[in-house]
Amino acid sequence: MSKATSTRPFAPFEWMVALRYLRARRKEGFISVIAGFSFIGITLGVATLIIVMAVMNGFRQELFDKMLGLNGHVVVHSLGSFTDYDDVAKRIREVDGVKYALPLIEGQVLISTPYTSSGALVRGLREKDLKSLKAISNNIRFGTLDGFDDQPGLALGSRMANDLNVKVGDEVSILTPRGPSTALGTAPRVKRYPVVAIFEIGMSEYDASILFMPLKEAQRYFSVPDSVTVLEVVLNSPDEVGELAPKIITAGGPTIYVSDWRQRNATFFTALQVERNVMFLILALIVLVAALNIISGLIMLVKDKGRDIAILRTMGATRGAVMRIFFITGASIGIVGTLAGFGLGVLVCLNIERLREFIGWLTSTELFAPELYYLSQLPADMDTGETTTVVVMALVLSVLATVYPSWRASRLDPVEALRYE
Questions:
Q1: Helices marked H in 222-264 — which ranges?
Q2: CA dist., res. 382 & res. 55, Å (int)
Q3: Are 163 and 211 in contact (CB under 8 A)?
Q4: Any alpha helices (H) in 165-254, and if so which ranges?
Q5: If you average pLDDT over every residue of the chain, what do you get?
Q6: How high is the pLDDT of residue 326?
Q7: Residue 400 CB coordination number (10 Å)
Q8: Looking at residue 95, what DSSP letter applies?
Q9: pLDDT for 185-225, tens place per residue?
Q10: For 328, what's the count of Cα atoms within 13 Å in the CB-facing half-sphere?
Q11: For residue 332, what is the DSSP state?
Q12: Is 399 exposed, middle or buried (0-12, 13-18, 19+ CB in 10 A)?
């Protein structure tokens, strides 16, 4: 009598039986419903993870680009009056890795028209320095920055212009308490300026609160004719700030000290990172619950197919073959669900702004209002490593979820299964 030989692993008949179990008949409809919910759960879990992480990445990157596009990576302060700013800026520009150093005057003012008023931050810059800030010069909506140094005019953010109801050519009044000293104390200074340019960088807080003035005019207005507030230093790469900050201090001399973007925005970016990590863990539970549904569905399928398993065993199927059949059945749900979730997530991320506009139109509401979320558009930036992590995690959970039910099926005793048949 010849010795029975087992089929090779994952033979065609194993795939045939496993896929047949996925197409449950009417009396097994409940098991089919559980498998369907498991598939939907994994699909939605993977898609949600990909979409949310992409949106949070995009949100962080947009804020990072806009905040650092308007503010220097390193801010140089003087221990005294900053009168030698041109010499210090020249020495700092010679440091390898420094893109440019901008002399800057900052001051809080009240900007007003005959109809309304609001607070604003004045930033006094030279024309060439303002044009080097691409976040501004590439986003001029009305007017021009040409000849900015030659005329006492202002460049306003679009939201500020809308709030004040002004356009290019209109005049606005700005008031500061840092005026001339009199016998009765310091008198506020009020002066009218024409609007020469309107910009829109897409970050609502900046578009609503910042205006630019020629550096010489700002020095006259704030009564600091020979000095500036700070030097803003822009680097070729903001990630090199830790390495270049000591070199900048050395080049600038003993009368300066510096702060960088990590110190000024540490709380903000740390909060974003913590929120992102917590959101990943919370949403990963969706995939975990879907994987648990695969376990419960397979255990019910094993119980329901006890007679079939016994017949397969008596016909020569090995324990390994039975285990692989149920492994294929459960893993197919997880793998196909993961791939479907990946496709859905990518599709939504590529059309996230259109989807936001459609939902807003459908519900007659403004989703992600710029006043609350800083940005005028909803960004989505898919990170390859992060997306791969999500897909691999879902696949691993799906595969692990099938191991125990498949093992239970392989351990089923054919005699016990057929005893009462």
A1: 241-252, 261-264
A2: 8
A3: no
A4: 204-209, 215-221, 241-252
A5: 81
A6: 81
A7: 15
A8: S
A9: 566 788 999 999 999 887 777 888 899 999 999 988 888 88
A10: 19
A11: H
A12: middle
Helices and strands of the chain, counted as H and E runs:
17, 12
Tokens 């990170």 found at: 383
- What's the pTM? 0.66
What digits encode the pLDDT tens for the residues 97-121? Answer: 888 888 999 889 999 998 888 899 9
On whether the CB atoms of residues 171 and 192 are closer than 8 A, the answer is yes
CA neighbours within 13 Å on the CB side: how many for 356? 17
Residue 377 to residue 62: CA distance in whole angstroms: 10
Distance CA 341, CA 248 (A): 49
- 248-293, pLDDT tens digit by residue? 988 888 888 888 887 777 777 788 778 888 888 888 888 888 888 8
Residue in the block written with tokens 């449950």: 24
* Distances 306 to 398, 411, 415 between C-alpha atoms, Å: 23, 11, 11
Q: What tokens appear for 357 in the block?
A: 């506009």
Do the Cβ atoms of 111 and 177 come closer than 8 Å? no
For 258, other C-beta atoms within 10 Å of its C-beta total 21
- CA neighbor of 296 nearest in space, from 33, 12, 100, 53: 33
Q: What is the Cα–Cα distance from 72 to 76, expressed in whole angstroms?
A: 9
The neighbouring-strand residues paired with 375 are 203
Q: What is the pLDDT at residue 194?
A: 93
Residues forming a β-bridge with 234: 100
Q: For residue 83, what pLDDT is reported?
A: 85
Pairing outcome for strands 154-157 and 189-199: parallel
Q: DSSP secondary structure string, 264-323?
A: HTHHHHHHHHHHHHHHHHHHHHHHHHHHHHHHHHHHHHHHHTHHHHHHHHHTT--HHHHH
Instruction: Please state whether beta strands 210-214 and 117-125 pair in parallel, antiparallel, or not at all (unpaired).
Output: parallel
What is the DSSP secondary-structure string of 116-154?
-EEEEEEEEE-HHHHHH-HHHHTTEEEE--TTGGGS--E
Residue holding tokens 């110190």?
263
Tokens of 56: 């949070």
* Integer CA distances (angstroms), 338 to 21, 276, 356, 391, in order: 20, 21, 24, 7
